[in-house]
Amino acid sequence: MAAKLSAAPAAVTEAESKATASVERLAPGGVADGGPSACPKCFGSGLEVVPGRGARRCGCRGADRQRRLLEAARIPRRYQSCMLRSYRPAPGEGSQLRAFNYAFRLVREYPAVDRGLLFAGPCGVGKTHLAVAVLHGLIEKGVACLFYEFGTLLKEIQDSYNPAQHTSELKVLAPVYEAEVLVLDELGAVKPTEWVRDTMTQIIGRRYNDKKLTVFTTNYSDSRRTPAEETLEDRIGARMRSRLYEMCKTIAVEGEDYRRHFDE
Predict the structure, then answer these.
(1) Residue 97 CB: number of other CB atoms within 10 A?
(2) pLDDT tens digits for 164-218?
(3) d(CA 122, CA 140)
(4) First-residue to last-residue Cα distance in the chain
(5) Is residue 199 part of a domain?
(6) DSSP 55-111
(7) Domain count for the chain
(8) Which DSSP category does 115 fall into?
(9) Any domain includes 123
């Protein structure tokens, strides 16, 4: 391929010649580091030669970046197929349609978005599906995202105190602090001990101060249906609940647990 490119006819423009030379430098012998499986358009160089126009970034690089972002997002296998296009609100359940509309709008308008979302409701109404669908939509736009189930995150932090794990609390928390968009699933699910609340305050407080976009899901609402029922404020504390009001739009998602119908 390199020999054919170097033997370009005189009619080739100067820009195209320079582009060809760039590809040859990046891909000596016509094939770059990608080897035999390299992209047929850019041969692994990342630059695609367009006749009469020069060179442009090859589309394969966008696909590679999206794949890397998806891997780095840590989306559990269970939820890897959760997309906005695959979400199905229950018939007649307006709250689920409303929740979908907010998720769709966040993806469409990002980065011109000031607040995240907090999906609150019972089990099996699609809260995690919508939260992960937001990540998928943003990753398609090239946004670096991260998913964590709250209990799993706490466990990883606890494990970092064990010298045998060869890790540190900062190593675990740094990606959580720095993620451009974070989904924190099942907020309030872990028994609110003093350590849990301190850790939660540290995570939410840091992202609050840095104005990082965060999407939460929780099974706890802001009102009690029975005297014994706990609210989200009971689980995370009044200070953190106050910050979440500013960080996120709270969306109540109601409906029947769809998992109850699997045996049918």
Answers:
(1) 12
(2) 766 788 899 999 999 999 999 999 999 999 999 999 999 999 999 999 999 999 9
(3) 29
(4) 58
(5) yes
(6) EEE-HHHHHHHHHHHHHHTT--GGGTT--GGG--PPTT-HHHHHHHHHHHHHHHHTT
(7) 2
(8) -
(9) yes
Of the pLDDT bands very low, low, confident and very high (cuts 50, 70, 90), residue 262 is confident
Residue 66 covered by a domain: no
Domain boundary among 40, 61, 82: 61
**Do 73 and 79 meet the contact criterion of CB atoms below 8 Å apart?**
no
- pLDDT, tens digit, for every residue of 233-256? 999 999 999 999 999 999 999 999
Do 192 and 154 reside in the same domain of the chain? Answer: yes
On whether both 80 and 131 belong to a single domain, the answer is yes
How far, CA to CA in Å, does 57 sit from each of 5, 38, 93, 141? 18, 15, 45, 16
Hey, which bits of the chain come out as E strands? 47-50, 54-57, 116-120, 145-149, 181-185, 213-218, 248-252
User: Both 208 and 103 in a single domain?
Assistant: yes
156 and 45 both lie in a single domain: no
Dist CA 38 CA 31 (whole Å): 7
The pLDDT of residue 60 is above 50: yes
pLDDT band, residue 44 (cuts 50/70/90): low
What is the rounded distance in angstroms from the CA atom of residue 167 to the CA atom of residue 207?
22
What pTM value is reported for the model? 0.76
Q: Is residue 250 part of a domain?
A: yes
Mean pLDDT of all residues belonging to the chain: 84
With a cut of 80, say whether residue 30 has pLDDT above it: no
Domain that holds residue 248: 73-261
In terms of domains, do 146 and 44 share one? no
Two structure tokens written together for 254 = 């109601």
